[in-house]
Write a structure and sequence with these properties.
Layout: H1 3-7, H2 9-14, H3 18-42, H4 48-73, H5 79-87, H6 93-117, H7 120-123, H8 137-158, H9 170-189, H10 195-205, H11 213-233, H12 253-257, H13 261-270, E1 276-285, E2 288-297, H14 303-311, E3 314-322, H15 328-337, E4 349-356, E5 359-366, H16 370-373, E6 385-390, H17 395-398, H18 408-414, H19 417-420, E7 426-428, H20 439-451
Parallel strand pairs: 1-7, 3-5, 3-6
Antiparallel strand pairs: 1-2, 2-6, 4-5
Helix pairs in contact: 3-4, 3-6, 3-10, 4-9, 5-6, 5-11, 6-10, 8-9, 8-11
């Protein structure tokens, strides 16, 4: 592997939509600095109430931005987070560097806008972070390192795709970690936790007191947190024996095997009585192989849908289901945006519209955690097709233990597809989700099959 591949230069050069992620990071950091540092200006009188106001402002702003742009860039909006992702191997160095650059530019822009809209007499330091008087550089460095560790550990924990025990809102958990750390550190160091948040006011107001520690502390904290989580805390993929942490809900063998892929397929067929056609695509999605199965629901046509088919665009509702951590959302966004996007576990559902060959597919990506599977049947109504995503490295739930992903023929045998789908047509298509190879062949087949009914 050459330098261009290892550094991520090749990935960035091939990514036609990298500008969307960079724009999201720029705008997200701009908003964070404008609103967060704006709260510092508004509460410049100091005191406990001011600290609470600042802490809530930064925490709620981050949680809100994460909801808005998390699906586009992962919503790092913080160089320390991007460093952590790079150290953990979730982001290549070149892309991480681009993220950090636009984050800093966004921070400066946010501080510049804040400077322009605040009267001169009220600007103060514009929310610049400096150590409290009497505090040593080493103490300030340690505080910034530790509070950033808390943030990055929280991010890795709630965004671990192998966990099925995460409940509630991941963005809210991340925002609350920032609020908690701010309540402690605002009166001590200003609670940066984010070099881009500090560099904005520093550039605009020219305040550079011990500025380096607001880079080194958070970035070191982010890197350490990433290493700790990757080595010791990362959730164990079901069926993997490499020693990663496994949530308590899956500590027993019986719990691991409770939902095998065969059982889920049987349940799927039982609850979807209409004729179904099937595609199964062998997928390699970074970093682990997967299989996508598309099941077509042939419910019958209304007169209006027949007219749409003949003279206009067809609107079709597609349901995407599968066990938790299988990669459903990653594949959905690959179809939608043409790129691999960092995601958080789906709690509930995601909905995206994909335009393809005069067909508008409205795809519902439904979460696959244990407590959500019983709800799948409520989404079947009016669905013209079903995309069933299978992780072919999921040993316990798929029932295979091979060094590589199972081939199509082996999966047919292991999942007993021939028995389950005796009266339904099906087709196998090998694919690679990381580059999109084969995915659209699957959509071609599904499009043709749907048009036949």
């Amino acid at each position: 592997m050459g330098f261009a591949e290892m550094s991520g230069l090749t990935e960035v050069m091939r990514d036609r939509f990298i500008w969307k992620a960079l724009l999201a990071e720029f705008l997200g950091t701009l908003i964070l600095v404008f609103v967060g540092c704006g709260s510092c200006v508004a509460s410049s009188g100091g005191g406990s109430a001011a600290y609470v106001q600042i802490a809530l402002s930064f925490g709620i702003t981050v949680a809100t931005i994460a909801q808005a742009i998390g699906h586009v860039s992962g919503c790092h909006i913080n160089p320390a987070v991007s460093v952590g992702m790079c150290v953990a191997g979730k982001m290549k160095p070149i892309k991480a560097t681009l993220y950090i650059i636009v984050q800093c530019v966004g921070g400066i822009a946010g501080a510049g806008i804040l400077y322009a809209v605040i009267p001169e007499a009220d600007r103060g330091a514009l929310g610049a972070t400096v150590p409290r008087e009497g505090m040593s550089v080493g103490q300030a460095f340690g505080v910034e390192l530790i509070i950033t560790m808390v943030l990055v550990l929280t991010i890795f924990g709630v965004c671990d795709e192998n966990r099925n025990d995460v409940t509630g809102s991941a963005p809210l958990a991340i925002g609350l970690s920032i609020t908690a750390c701010h309540l402690f550190a605002v009166p001590i160091t200003g609670s940066s936790m984010n070099p881009a948040r500090t560099v904005g006011p520093a550039v605009i107001q020219g305040i550079w007191i011990e500025h380096w520690l607001y880079w080194m502390g958070p970035c070191a904290g982010g890197a350490i947190a990433a290493l700790i989580y990757k080595v010791a805390f990362r959730a164990k993929p079901t069926g993997d024996s490499r020693g990663e942490y496994e949530p308590a809900a899956q500590d027993t063998k019986e719990s691991e095997c409770e939902y095998r892929q065969e059982d889920v397929i049987e349940n799927l067929i039982e609850n979807q009585p209409s004729p179904i056609s099937l595609i199964k695509c062998s997928i390699t999605q970074l970093p682990k192989p997967e299989t996508v199965i598309l099941l077509q629901n042939t419910m019958g046509l209304t007169f209006s849908s027949l007219l749409n088919r003949l003279f206009g665009k067809n609107d079709m509702r597609i349901l995407m289901v599968g066990l938790d951590g299988a990669g459903k959302t990653t594949i959905l966004y690959k179809f939608k945006f043409g790129e691999i996007i960092s995601t958080i576990p789906t709690i509930g559902f995601n909905v995206e519209t994909i335009e393809y060959k005069n067909i508008s597919f409205t795809v519902w990506d439904v979460g696959g955690q244990d407590r959500l599977r019983s709800l799948w049947r409520y989404y079947y109504k009016n669905a013209r097709g079903i995309i069933f995503v299978i992780d072919s490295h999921d040993v316990e739930r798929l029932g295979e233990d091979l060094p590589n992903a199972l081939g199509p023929a082996e999966l047919i045998d292991r999942l007993n597809i021939g028995t389950h789908l005796q009266k339904r047509r099906w087709y196998i298509q090998s694919s690679n989700a990381s580059i999109g190879e084969g995915l659209y062949d699957g959509l071609d087949w599904l499009s043709r099959e749907l048009k036949d009914y």
